[in-house]
Amino acid sequence: MVAFIVRRVIAAVLMLAVVSAATFAIFFLIPRALGQTPEGMASRYVGRDATPEAIQGAVKRLHLDDPLIVQYGRFAKGIVAGEDYSLGPRKAECPAPCFGYSFNNNQPVWPTLLDRLPATMSLAAGAAILWLIAGVSIGIVSALRRGTALDRAAMTVALAGVSLPIYFTGLVSLSVFAYTLGIFPGGGTYTSISENPIAWFQALVLPWITLAFLYAALYARLTRAGMLETMGEDYIRTARAKGLKESTVVTKHALRATLTPILTIFGLDVGLLLGGAVLTESTFSIPGVGKLVIDAIRGNDLPVVLGVTMFAAFFIVLANLIVDILYAVVDPRVRLS
Amino acid sequence: MTTAPGSSAPDSFLELRDLRIHFPTEDGVVKSVDGLSFKLDRGKTLGIVGESGSGKSVTSLGILGLHKGGRAKISGEIWLDGEELVGASVDHVRTLRGKKMAMIFQDPLSSMHPYYTVGAQIIEAYRIHHKVSKQVARKHAIDMLGRVGIPQPDKRVDSYPHEFSGGMRQRAMIAMALSCDPELLIADEPTTALDVTVQAQILDLMLDLQREFNSALIVITHDLGVVAELSDDILVMYGGRCVEYGSAEDIFYRPEHPYTWGLLGSMPRLDREPTERLMPIKGSPPSLINVPTGCAFNPRCAYEGRTGGKATTEVPQLAETEGGHLVRCHMPPAERRAIWENEIKPMLEST
Amino acid sequence: MTTPLDVSGQAMEAQPEAVLQGTGGKAIEGRSLGQIAWTRLKRDKAAVAGAVVVVFLVLVAIFAERPFGGLIALFGDSPNIPNNDLIDPMTSAPTAPLGGISLEHPFGLEPVNGRDIFARILSGAQISLLVAFLATLVSVVIGALLGVLAGYFGGWIDTVISRLMDVFLAFPLLLFAIAIVGALPDQALGMKGNALRIAVIVFIIGFFSWPYIARIVRGQTLSLREREFVDAARSLGATNRYIIFREVFPNLVAPILVYSTLLIPTNIMFEASLSFLGVGVNEPQASWGGMLTRAVDYYQIAPHFMIVPGLAIFITVMAFNLLGDGLRDALDPRAR
Amino acid sequence: MRKTKALALAALGTTLSMGLAACGGTAGGGGNNTGSGNQGTGASGTAFNDAYTKLVNASDAKGGTLKFALTDEPDSTDPGNTYYAWNWNFSRLYARPLMTYQPAPGEEGLKLVPDLAEGPGQASEDGKTWTYKLKKGIKYDDGTEVKAADVKYAIARSNFTSELTDGPKYFAQYLDAEGYKGPYKDKNLDDFKGVETPDDYTVVFKLKAPFSEFDFLVANPQSAPVPQAKDTGLDYEKNVASTGPYKFESYEVGKQLNLVKNENWDPSTDTTRKQLPDRIEVQYKQNADDIDQRLLNGQIHVDLGGTGVQPAARAKIVGKPELKNSSDNPYTPFNRYAMMSTKVKPFDNIECRKAVQYATDKVATQAPWGGPLGGDIGSTAMTPTTVGYKPFDLYPNGQDHKGDKDKAKASLAACGQPNGFETNIAVRGDRVKEVQVAEALQASLDQVGIKATIKKYPSGDWSSQYAGKPEFVHKNNLGIMIAGWGSDWPSGFGFLSQIVDGRFIKDSGNYNMMELDDPTVNELLDKGIQTTDTAARNEIWSQVDKKVMESAAFMPFVYEKTLLFRPSNLTNVYVHPAYGMYDYTWLGVKQQ
After folding, report:
1. In chain C, which residues have their Cβ closer than 8 Å to the Cβ of A15?
2. What are the pLDDT tens digits along chain A (337 aa)?
3. How high is the ipTM of this complex?
4. In total, how many domains does chain C have?
5. How many CB atoms within 10 Å of residue C89?
6. C-D interface (Cβ pairs under 8 Å ≥ 3)
7. Most buried residue among B127, D90, D435, D463 by CB atoms closer than 10 A?
8. C236 in a domain, yes or no?
9. Do the beta carbons of residue D169 and residue D182 sit within 8 Å?
């Protein structure tokens, strides 16, 4: 088991290294290949009235004239060991993990990310609880009542749910519940939970429901399909042949097998969302990681874009890791392999 | 007995009367079992033989009541130890399952829950029907594992199914089925997934255990070799119906149905030259939705021409030919026997 | 099966291996798998409805602007012509009630410039479907190829391709797409303007969704590899290439068809999301996601401008999903 | 122009319908126009655009918290590192430059008054040396006194370092400081020869060439003093040494700034500011619609950006008289226009440029800005609020400016392109309004056979790599470029020089995108900036405007306006013409 975990952790770290290199390549190598010069990149960050000296100064300050491999080395070193940055009259220490300083507001990226994380986490956690409960229970009931009107209705709604773009659902819900009926506050009213838990809750109700609706629809479909497949398994027949009550067959035998892969996907989905729910956060103006990165992309703020991408990849890889390990715990067959 | 369905309790331990199990699907009604009747006494073994899709597994699950409450339409009667089960409540049949009647499934790997230890699954089976503590049940499980010949049962009880070899898994499966001393044991292709030497061990084990528990045993298989070793009586199924029924000797030495001949012909035998051609049955099993008109076997039957056209128009009756030996064929008994004696048997014995 | 597209969220429904490994025990004689599937599909009312809508949409897209101005010209207004006289300059909303919905403008008018939404929806349908189809084609080609290689050869090839899929799945996809499309030069590869943009969007969507196809194909190939007819071919001395193309591929057509059909709506959503985030096709070419972006500022005063393109996306995606679900059910009765 | 920011000298032009005489006298010094004092007690007593011409809700009541909200975040709160017009307005709450604008609506607000300085700059005979005397006794919030060296240091850091890049670099451009490496590389301030400080209260600027509008340059917040010992470079924004009526209490970058009263601010040294609220809170990165909502509800007092309300709120305000009466619709310093490249065929032929001028439906290009509330249809390079502005229209394009196809076709024929031609319209892709303008323009041109393709470029690289790079423009055939401009200091020179002076055509970062290099224009600009007489100077600017328009390469769409809302609990409100938004140093709040 220990060896298994160690192996998985090493694989995860390698994966992050690959992702970081690829990310770096996409944001630095591709522009370079398309003819971008260090001066060209620097000119974005020196204001409207940049003198050639100022541009050269920015090139030097941001080390844009170094070979890309050196730049990547510095980027990687910053993440692992930290890096010093010039803020003018003095050097600023940027401790590991250091993703550098925003080109646009000169703030270190890592604390900014951490600062944005609670909003994203609030959104993801609330929605995850909702969709897991709703999606899975609807899926189970649908599978057990297969072919009934209930099943058909639930699956129609679920199909509609996965067919609706989330920003559209979001806008419609804002339009109806916030601006027409005034039941919930509108977009951009997110408040941190420590500041005002009630406002936090109110502001997140619509985003939660919007995000959870999409995922619940998906999970209902997944759970139903998984449940149907499991209910057709030989070991379910065996359980019935033993004389087990149907309820026991469902809860003890079928659910465990059905939910294990669902939980796997759940872990990955939550991991994905923690890296920023770009569309939901944009639609509802929630100051989370996703909103941060969209703003950063629009503002050409490469360090922030890189940081968020790495951050998001980290969560995906971490989720994969946790899921792998959990799977090994839940499914005895995995341990040997 | 084939034509006289009664409603009173029979003498035999198990009796099926005109059992029909139909599945309505969008493609049509699948008549998996279509009028099946037989009897079985305690201590006796019945072999049910047929190709896949002939309805034999559906029959066994039907007896256990596992089609109840689903989409299946079930009619006819199943009498077990004086009780009628088709009309009995789902819940009542459930209490009989595992205790009064148990089943050994074909593929023990997929038939055992991968997430629970073998011990846990036997314990669960035992505790459904016996109000005992987990410790007692565990002792019983170890005991059962030992009895089916699993070495170091006190250790293996905590192993998962995937940690067992195929043969050991089948033994564990049998241990689970026998944990509540069932009076009726149904084994569905118990040895298909095993290699030949292990097959023999498992078959021996089942015979021993049957004797020990004096239970009635139904062995379902497509392999005549298996039933040859185990069975007192043999029932050949085709297209959801019984086409021939008789004692093991009847079936092996005096078979009268062309389909049975085909089965015998396609049975590999160790005493035969490997170079020799088997006698395969041409074609494939019939659709259970659109069963061929007349005799279901007619499209594949080499003797279809000898029925005077009845094969394609009229469903043959299952009729007694002599001493409890039943055959469903349009050809007159004498002609059937003659074909067997003169054409088929010499071919099979042409060593 | 549409993936939840919030940013990066892209988890496919996980029932890959189960699909299409034979039609189960109830043997039905005399009809091929294709015929059976067709019969089943015809009976699935939802799938038929989906198919009808899909065919309708494809026809609408094809004939939207051609020949001779196509359907758009037939119904009057052009998608890019402003109608400022129908807009209240003080509020930027259409002067007439209900967003200016009328016989001439069945879906109403765009705020600010008064362009005809009906024409723009039709025009946008071309982009949506074109991008979705082509992107699906790209991912199917890449995914099928790599999936077969991984599944058939196994060993280090499988390891490399599987790891590659993991890496791709670990990327916050939407972020990359936005960044790459945003950093696009104006002309490259002999293309420029919208042609280049569409090509790049197609490539990105296709390039990032191939692992979903590859995963399924790999699984299928793994099991096909062990099947008798492959053994038979091999024992007859067939080359790997022959086996892959003549023996394995034909058996992959059904699952690839099903999952391509289910990938199309995902790609429609993806294109719409890119357009919504401002990195879709260039103006004034209409796109549904782009219309929704514009609608964000006006949904309180001109809700029709949000609802119409939203419903267009919804109906299209739903139709493809219904059809895809139906196809899957038809080809794999066990999944019902 | 990298960001939406800049100031304008706003001399209210004759097109303004309201009489400016009504607001005689400055709003400062407590002397208000007699009527407004009574009216100011309730918002209901005010009318649409009232704060444009007079002080509304006048009150000297102190206390309360003044709340601002902003959709964006500032480039920096450091007065030496910012280029946003609103921030030049806002930073005066804690930073005092040498000169500042008189606090008054209308024309009076465009005049400069000394702030840190005792009086306006004294120019030398040759116009190349400008001397300012500092007021004595002006203190930082920690009680230490402001010294001349601090002003010199502030100029040095904001113009000569590669770290503080966000502000303009006029001092670097005009000061005679050849070879100076900036205070971060060269710690010895004496090496900075462009500014001299003979004593603690005298600052002398040494220029390369005469510059008669230098007072405007030092009204830029970059001249606000910074003690060298306190400078932490890019981090200075977190703890600015305050000279104004407020000082930093706390600042979370990108989230919130809280200001409290600066006890060391002495009102007797400051004639332009008030200190009414107890504290000032600013929330950054707020949702635009939410800001409007809270503004309408009175939960916040001002949308800090001064760019006006969103379409949803605009519709509400337009629809309800009581809301409309609490709003103002001032000009911003911006002109929104298209430039046609004189170096890209066929626009090298003036007749083809004229064809575009005539063909364009300017009502359609006005709509994206928000219709009449978003700007008046323009016909000149300078805006009505620029000194020297005179209205004229060289290319009347039909009734209501909806385009004149016949004239356009005639011009096309004269150009030798009777059937039209193909060209490209470059636009900043992330600016939705500008893209909508491009779409409208494209549709107009299509009517006369000019087939234009819209090319979107990211605004971040717009001037450095795309429209601002002539080589790129030529290579990619960018005939028409959609742009906007607001000047950095209030004069025709400030507005026009960067965008029309042929000698300002740069290889990159070029704002004269039409590449107009007309010797007459260049000479007039030189002549103007050396003319010390204001009236004569302003006359020259209007001549420049006409010359530019004669080239037909500059096509204005709108003189931008915004719709500002003032909640009833906001007191002491007027639109400061130098910023085109409310004077943030004057505001107070009504306590509930």
Report:
1. 166-167, 170
2. 788 888 888 888 888 888 888 888 877 887 777 667 787 777 766 666 666 777 787 788 778 888 888 888 888 888 888 888 777 777 778 887 888 888 777 788 999 999 999 999 999 999 999 999 999 999 999 999 988 999 999 999 999 999 999 999 999 999 999 888 989 988 888 888 988 999 999 999 999 999 999 999 999 999 999 999 899 888 999 999 998 998 999 999 999 889 988 988 898 889 889 887 889 998 998 999 999 988 888 777 888 888 888 888 888 888 888 888 888 888 887 765 4
3. 0.85
4. 1
5. 17
6. yes
7. D90
8. yes
9. no
Burial of B232 (0-12, 13-18, 19+ CB in 10 A): middle
C97 interaction partners in chain D (CB closer than 8 Å): none
Q: Where are the domains of chain D?
A: 2-283+563-589, 331-561
Name which of B177, B199, B181, B184 is nearest B59 in CA terms.
Answer: B184
Q: Which of A103, A106, A281 to mutate to test the interface with D (most CBs of D within 10 A)?
A: A106
The minimum CA-CA distance between C36 and chain B, rounded to whole Å, is 9
CA distance C47 to chain B (A): 15
The better pLDDT of the pair B299, D473 is held by: D473
Q: Which tokens sit at A20?
A: 């970081």
Contact A333 B162 (CB under 8 A): yes
CA distance C183 to chain A (A): 7
A48 lies within 8 A of chain D by CB? yes
Bridge partners of residue B187, in order along the sequence: B104, B219
CB A120 within 8 A of CB A280: no
Query: What class is the D331-561 domain?
Result: alpha beta
What pTM was computed for the model? 0.87
- Tell whether the model's pLDDT for residue C333 goes beyond 70: no
Residue D41: what pLDDT? 36
Q: What is the β-pairing status of strands B184-188 and B101-104?
A: parallel
Cβ–Cβ below 8 Å for C298 and D312? yes
Min CA distance, A37 vs chain C (Å)? 14
Angstrom distance (rounded) from CA D283 to CA D278: 17
Cβ count near D190 (within 10 Å): 10
CB proximity C294 to D under 8 Å: yes
| Most A-contacting residue of C45, C175, C258, C276 (CB-CB within 10 A), to test interface | C175
Tell me the CATH number at C285: 1.10.3720.10
In chain D, which residue's Cα lies nearest the Cα of C186? D455
- Tell how far CA A54 is from the center of its chain: 38
A129-133, C189-193, C223-227, D322-326: which range is least confident on average? C189-193
CA angle C257, C261, C262 (to 5 degrees): 120
Cα–Cα nearest to B328, from B4, B53, B37: B37
How far apart are alpha carbons D567 and C203 in whole angstroms?
51
Task: Indicate whether D261 pLDDT > 70.
Answer: yes
Does residue C284 have a cis bond before it (omega within 30 degrees)? yes
Range of the structural domain that residue C282 is part of: 124-299+314-322
**How many contiguous H segments (helices) and E segments (strands) does chain B have?**
13, 12
Say how far apart CA A79 and CA D360 lie, in whole Å.
Answer: 54
Q: Which residues of C touch B288 (CB under 8 A)?
A: 26-27
**Domains of chain B in sequence order:** 14-100+182-266+277-350 (3.40.50.300), 110-181 (no CATH)
Nearest to B65 by CA among A233, C334, A246: A246
Taking CB atoms and an 8 Å cut-off, how many pairs form between chains A and D? 118
CATH of domain D2-283+563-589: 3.40.190.10
Domain for residue C87, yes or no? no
C150: CB partners within 8 A, 6+ apart: C157, C158, C161, C162, C214, C218, C221
Structural tokens at position C7: 């940013």
Residue in D285, D463, D509 closest to A287 by CB: D285
Q: Is C144 in CB contact (< 8 Å) with chain A?
A: no
Q: Does residue C23 belong to any structural domain of this protein?
A: no
